Amino acid sequence: MKTVKIIERSVSTDKNDKNYAKLSVETSGKALMIDEVTGQKLVVNLPAKRSTVLAWEESYLDGKSQFGWNLKQGDMVAGDIVTRRVVEYEILSKDGEGEGRMVNTYTCFVAGDTDDVKSFDAEIIKSFTRASREIVDNDGQIVNPINPRASNTTLKVNETVDSEFAKA
């Protein structure tokens, strides 16, 4: 099972005076492989990947603290940092004034048991949907169509749109 490490944690307050934790997570930068010739197990180095996760002290949906709120720097969490091809979107310039750039990939942390492929694939789809990103497969088909009523809104990483889908 893959894990990430919380390398930094800070607490901020949103515009509605709700506290949230900003968690920076990082992969180990190491992988276990088996030498095909000798059968020997080897630890190989890979570039570490980083991502950021937001977790609210009190969720807007149910008032409960979100997964991640109680995590601290140094904690290990089951999951992986995942990049997928998505429907093209614009990243605005830093000042918001200049021209942005169009991109067609998105990366985020996905919590879960990476060894349970079916379950983890479902978590990937949930995480990308929560971030309002539609995954595109190799044939150019959208894997996780976003609810049309929610597609024009910006969602935080840990907010869910499940209740909106239930209403549709």
Task: Provide a compact summary of the structure.
With 168 residues, this protein is mainly beta. The chain has helices at 117-130, 162-167, and strands spanning 3-13, 19-27, 30-34, 41-45, 50-56, 76-91, 101-111.
Q: N-to-C terminal Cα separation, in Å?
A: 35 Å
- Classify the secondary structure makeup into a structural class: mainly beta
Number of helices: 2
Query: Strand order across the biggest sheet?
Result: 5-2-1-6-7
Sheet-strand content, in percent, reads 35-45%
* Average pLDDT level: 88
State the shape: globular
Q: Approximately how much helix is present in the residues?
A: 10-25%
Radius of gyration: 18 Å
Order of helices and strands: EEEEEEEHH
- What number of structural domains do the residues give? 1
Detailed description of the structure:
The protein is mainly beta. The chain has one domain. A 5-stranded antiparallel beta sheet has the order 5-2-1-6-7, covered by helices on one side. The C terminus is likely disordered.
In terms of topology, how is this protein built?
Blueprint: E1 3-13, E2 19-27, E3 30-34, E4 41-45, E5 50-56, E6 76-91, E7 101-111, H1 117-130, H2 162-167
Antiparallel strand pairs: 1-2, 1-6, 2-5, 3-4, 6-7
